[in-house]
Specification:
By secondary structure, the chain is an alpha/beta fold. It contains 17 helices and 13 strands. Strand 12 and strand 13 form a beta hairpin.
């Protein structure tokens, strides 16, 4: 059976609200904010890509300036040096390539990766950076003293060398932070200790076997070690926990849209659903019907986007793209992809019920450790898990309104997450920064003003597209979510 209906993934919403200034000069913080007993004379941030200001699958200056740490630093008037990379970043960022217009409405947004390459702008800074967020870092990387250059090669991750540069500044991330004699530290780490497993569809991980999330006992020991090291600096510290994958569009976009797309065939009795591989199986060991896909009981990750349009067509593009020397036993690519048990949706793009249970157990365990270490060391704690969860839950009643902007966790249309489906937009970073500020104000009797999220640009490259194509403005002004077709 052939299934040739076009699968449209990339959607957008009212983009006029996303047009914003990229220059921070109009966002000057009030003079001399009351920071209470918190001292920002030496402010350091530790973490991974979420801290680094990584966005749209890239590290680039016009997103880095909106990292939550930099937004906090501007709010309190603190010096905050970041390892800036010129646009279009490393690697070239995701951008909006074009809009597909049907009947006067935007039917889809097509994304492309910029083929350019940015360059480090301040690698000669004569001290550790204030923002020590290293994209791709796991918890262990905070204390690991392997040569940064060697680690960059071993991990295929240039950001270790870009951010940390030289062991003369400190042989590890924690030591570089300590060498700045910090008075205030934020730390948001541990996400990649479960995301590596989750984004791979459960096919790889960060534990000793490379197959599962970081072991709970190992995570606890490491986080306690890092907590003790930060406490020893004498700095005030605020840490953040790990969100539920149910609040991240990377995991909640493709499945529901596949479900909506194939529903007519299901309703007509032509198919029962999409066959998928459970972990460890070759041919299909599961069948996802409409309700299973739409509810997220079985999740299809964003990595599988381009393959979704191939559902129902004979072929084995996945096996070619991923370098299989031969088809696995039992696979028959002459059968319709995804609609026959011998040519199922791949395990690498799927999170089955068991894999989701593994993820949930580790997120809960990691967050329990983070909460315990925060309490034991008198750190502030930002409950990102609950905050993102509340925004997710609010979608049933239209979303969460912040400074006049409605946020959801939907891909592109939600405003909270950027084009890669994992990292926050500039406005999303402002939302996170405000949650840190709330904790700082409460714990240390400060009255730092909250950041006006409406003054921060949303998805910058959607806004740039409008600037280049002003004739689209009337369409954006009249755009409603129901205008989108799938």
């Amino acid at each position: 059976m052939k299934f040739n209906k076009i699968f449209v993934l990339f959607i957008s919403v009212l983009l006029i609200a996303l047009v914003g200034c990229e220059d921070r000069s109009d966002l000057t913080a009030p003079e001399a904010p009351n920071t209470g007993t918190a001292d920002f004379s030496s402010f350091v941030s530790i973490g991974n890509s979420l801290t680094a200001g990584f966005a749209d699958n890239s590290l680039y200056e016009s997103a880095q300036v909106y990292s939550f740490g930099n937004q906090i630093a501007e709010a309190v008037g603190a010096q905050y040096v970041q390892p800036l990379v010129s646009d279009p970043g490393l690697p070239g960022r995701l951008e909006v390539d074009r809009f597909i217009i049907q009947d006067g409405s935007i039917a889809s947004v097509v994304l492309t990766q910029n083929t350019g390459l940015g360059a480090a702008l301040n690698s000669s800074h004569a001290a550790p950076f204030n923002n020590l967020g290293v994209p791709g870092a796991i918890l262990y990387d905070l204390v690991d003293e392997t040569s940064f250059a060697q680690k960059a090669v071993d991990r295929g991750n240039p950001y270790f060398q870009l951010v940390l540069r030289d062991a003369q500044f400190g042989a590890s991330i924690v030591k570089q932070a300590a060498n700045l004699s910090p008075t205030f530290i934020t730390m948001w780490i541990g996400n990649n200790d479960v995301l590596g497993y989750a984004t791979s569809g459960g096919t790889s991980g960060t534990d000793a076997t490379g197959k599962l999330p970081t072991d709970l006992t190992v995570f606890s020991a490491l986080y306690n070690q890092v907590g003790a090291a930060l406490a020893a600096t004498g700095a005030k510290v605020v840490v953040a926990n790990i969100p539920d994958i149910n609040a991240i569009p990377f995991f909640n976009t493709v499945g529901p849209l596949v479900g909506v797309t194939i529903k007519p065939l299901i309703d007509a009795g032509q198919i029962a659903g999409v066959y998928y591989q459970k972990h460890g199986e070759t041919v299909a060991s599961g069948l996802a019907d409409f309700n299973t896909l739409v509810s997220g009981a079985i999740k299809f990750t964003l990595v599988g986007t381009e393959y979704a349009s191939l559902i129902g067509q004979p072929g084995g593009k996945f096996y070619v793209d991923y370098g299989y020397p031969a088809l696995p036993a039992g696979i028959d690519t002459t059968q319709p992809f995804g609609l026959h048990p011998q040519n199922p949706w791949p395990d690498a793009f799927t999170l089955d019920a068991d894999e989701q249970s593994t993820i949930a157990t580790h997120v809960a365990g990691f967050n329990s450790t983070i909460s315990s270490v925060a309490t034991n060391n008198n750190f502030g704690l930002v409950d990102v898990n609950s905050i993102f969860g509340q925004i997710k839950a609010s979608e049933a009643t239209g979303g969460t309104t912040i400074d006049g902007i409605i946020f959801t966790t939907q891909f592109l249309s939600g405003g909270l997450f950027g084009l890669d489906g994992v990292h926050p937009t500039a406005q999303g970073q402002a939302v996170v920064a405000n949650e840190f500020i709330k904790v700082i104000n409460s714990k240390w009797s400060a009255s730092i003003p909250h950041i006006n999220v409406s003054e921060i640009p949303g998805t910058i490259f959607l806004a740039k597209t409008i600037e280049k194509h002003p004739h689209l403005i009337p369409i954006f002004e009249n755009l409603k979510l129901e205008d989108f077709t799938f």
